[in-house]
Amino acid sequence: MTRRSVVRRGTVLLWVARHALAIALALMFLGPLVFIALTALMSDRQALTSDLWPHTWNWGNFAEIFEKAPLLTWIRNTLLYSVLATAFMLVSSIPVAYALARFRFRGRRLAFLLVITTMMLPPQVVAVPIYLIWARFHLTGTLWPLILPMLLGDAFSIFLLRQFLVTIPREYSDAAKVDGCGEFRTLVRVILPMARPAIAAVALFQFFYCWNDYYGPLLYAGTDLDSWTLSLGLAAFRSVHRVQWNLTMAATLLAMAPVIIVFFFAQKVFIEGVKLTGVK
């Protein structure tokens, strides 16, 4: 063994020793995903055994899911819920966060305290009165009771956006006002481009929450099969096909794939936004 190979091997071992905890945590998180993927490619009989590696690669399991369940309808409803709720949240939360971060008015601290207080209120506490309100508008059985409230803002998103906006120096907005920009134009032309990491972070938080939400769709859309999301559909699919774990795992993998892909392409701006929102 040459000296160069010995040094290279020592460097690799040193790197493994330094990152042993991170490697162990990565394997711990990747283990369930690998198990789901391997089980999704097994046959019906093998999925019920203790074997961890597929004897045959049954790629047809993914096509069989679409034949046995309205998966496209569930995906469409989930996308509708996630995209509209995220868009409405951004439209309503950004101006509120901007006002709390940049304006000086009486009661500003109290308003910010109320925003934080609403974050501590469990949704189950107000579920009954809110459900009765939407029932009077005949919107129960749909996803609109979950989408329309986002037009009133989201407390967690307002909090994160406000924490980022207070870190932007006021000199930028003052210079824009000197050039003749009003508050709205300053927000759109100056502040929003600088706040892209925070906006991306809260948008991804909201999108992931809506994509994985089970309680809300169960409460409002549980009686209408055509309004089911992926979370409701997968729960029902698991109950009907509880013996066919290969199909259940294949459906689970398809439900997770969009979220993983979105996070993979947006992880840099997402992590940057989360980091910067906690500066102050």
UniProtKB/TrEMBL annotation:
Q: Does the keyword rRNA-binding apply?
A: no
Q: What superkingdom heads the lineage?
A: Bacteria
**Membrane-crossing segments per the record:** 21-42, 79-100, 112-134, 146-165, 186-209, 247-266
Q: Which PROSITE patterns match?
A: ABC_TM1
Query: Gene Ontology cellular component?
Result: plasma membrane
The protein's matches in SUPFAM superfamilies, at most eight in alphabetical order, are given as: MetI-like (SSF161098)
Q: Where in the cell is it found?
A: Cell membrane
InterPro entries listed in its UniProt record = MetI-like (IPR000515), MetI-like_sf (IPR035906)
Pfam families assigned: BPD_transp_1
Q: Which stretches make up the ABC transmembrane type-1 domain?
A: 75-266
Q: Tell me the GO BP annotations in alphabetical order.
A: transmembrane transport
This protein's membrane topology, according to the annotation, is: Multi-pass membrane protein
Chain segments annotated as coiled-coil in the UniProt record: none
Q: Which UniProt keywords apply?
A: Cell membrane, Membrane, Transmembrane, Transmembrane helix, Transport
Gene3D superfamilies membership:
MetI-like
**Family membership:** Belongs to the binding-protein-dependent transport system permease family.
Entry protein name: ABC transporter permease subunit
Q: Which organism is it from?
A: Microbispora catharanthi
